[in-house]
Design goal:
about 15% strand; about 140 residues; single chain; 3 helices; five-stranded mixed beta sheet; alpha/beta
Length: about 140
């Protein structure tokens, strides 16, 4: 409660202080109302909902290990093949649904020409999931 002592000389002076008591009273009443009504609002009707499975059953695509050694030899899952045979394998793999993931492992000493030929053949066949495998430092 604000206490104001007025001078006898200035009886007509305006009180310049704000009385905070009514505002604090209103805030306390609102706080009590919210505390009482919050548990009532959170009560819900208990309903037993049906169960549904919304997760799609995704078939994981197979993974093909494609390797090129330092001499430029191509290996499809550790079976040595030539570039013409790779074209056939790549076309068959591109037609599968889902398309297999091709993990290309190229030796660091291999000429880029061999890697470029494999990449071009993969693109011609329509393979879209092709990744390069490297060793971490």
């Amino acid at each position: 409660m604000a206490l104001h002592i007025q001078d006898d000389q200035n009886d007509d002076a305006i009180m310049a202080e704000i009385n905070m008591t009514p505002m604090v009273d209103v805030m306390l009443v609102l706080l009590i109302i919210f505390i009482i009504t919050l548990p009532v609002i959170q009560q819900a009707v208990k309903v037993e909902l049906p169960k549904a499975n919304s997760v799609r059953n995704e078939v994981k695509p197979e993974s093909v290990q494609l390797s090129i050694d330092a001499k430029g030899q191509i290996f499809w899952n550790s079976a040595q093949i030539d570039l013409k045979t790779f074209d056939g394998y790549a076309e068959k793999a591109a037609q599968k649904d889902p398309q297999p993931e091709i993990n290309l492992r190229a030796d660091k000493a291999v000429k880029y020409e061999y890697v470029a030929q494999v990449l071009a053949a993969s693109r011609r066949a329509g393979l879209t999931k092709l990744g390069f495998v490297t060793e971490p430092n």
